[in-house]
Amino acid sequence: FPAFTGDGKGLSVIKWVIRSRSLPLSILSTNKCVEVFMNCGFLFKPCADFEIEGSFSERCCTIYTTTTHRPVAQVKRKWSATETML
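Structure (tokenized):
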């Protein structure tokens, strides 16, 4: 799956990368999940303290903090010449 990026909400300058992957549970079924990474310079670090609500098929989602459930980023579908972005 392609990676998707979005800017932080408000005054934040956080960059997000959201990747979707399929984890095979059996030959006939798959479990889809998404991973969120925070752009720390040249490194993308997993963000375990954030959760996502949204639709991968519609390419839109909101990222919340796990503790306060405060929205920190909202990303929507956007197309680029070199990559597909939310």
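The chain has a mean pLDDT of 56. The longest strand covers residues 30-40.
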